[in-house]
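User: Here's a protein and a ligand (tryptophan). What would the complex look like?
Assistant: Let me lay out the input and then the predicted complex.
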Amino acid sequence: MPSQNQIRRVVSGMRPTGKLHLGHLSVLENWVRMQDEYDCYFFVANWHALTTAFEETEDIPKNIRDLVIDWLSVGIDPLRSKVFIQSQVKEVAELYLLLSMITPISWLERCPTFKDQVHQLGEQGKDINTHGFLGYPVLMASDILIYKGNLVPVGEDQLPHLEMTREIARRFNHMYDVKALTEPQALLGEVALLPGVDGRKMSKSYNNDISISAATDEVNRRVNAMITDPTRIRKSDPGHPEVCTVYQFNRVFRKDEIDQITADCRGAQVGCVACKKMLAQAIDQFLTPFRERRRELEANPKEVEDVLQAGAEKASLEARKTMGEIRKAMNVE
Ligand code: TRP
Ligand code: SF4
């Protein structure tokens, strides 16, 4: 039995930016696995989406639905985990306000994701030099701290935010001499990070992704478009797996056969066309069970709504408890 002071609660969120793809697998697999051991809070970070998409909000409701269906289809279990929408727990906004009082601007300006993103989107002609975007890490800290999360499964890009969450928690507890906030730990995925079919980072915006809801012919098309070893012109030329995108996928989806694949590639025993065909089959097989569940959910929109409502109600209970402590500590009853 886990005791009171052992790690026991998981909190994580994703922004509703479109369908999930194989690049999200490592975080998703963590989410699914952690349900067996922890009390999990999984939410759609729709307020976070607004920090960059405040001018074009019309797609957000559909993206929320798609995201939740993606989650449920891969095995997020709403009977064990709280699955909900960030903005349906309004206490988070209150905690965000209160934590913003104690968070130095210098911490936020120093945050690498802030500088990078303002610069990157600025180059695309979009000005996100806003109060809301600057406060992104404070909002994320509020998401985690309000549910007293101990573990936060995220991608590597989120580590600076996790570190700031810990700093904010420490500062709060120290300043008001309380133990109201729990310092969370990040948990990185174990599955190797998959590149996009063109070898760059997998991203919907590069159009190089394989979505987890992809149909068989889409999977085939994407795998066919993958970059292989460019020096291998004929089948009789020895291959170099280390430079091949197909190979990186083989390492994840054909893990059990990887030694044979490596030998066959280097020894020119298998052609790239055949190699791609086998990979496409392996990915397709991997996605098959998800498709079944997705079909059910798409046929029954009410089920998704019910899941989100029940999730928000359960999450709110915890959020209210924490806010009681926070208000007391800061004398803002
Ligand atoms: N910032 C995270 C991302 O872009 C999403 C997120 C928001 C989150 N709140 C969170 C993740 C709390 C973990 C915990 O991926
Ligand atoms: Fe890549 Fe497979 Fe071709 Fe080797 S045989 S280069 S692993 S596609």
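Summary: The chain has 14 helices and five strands.
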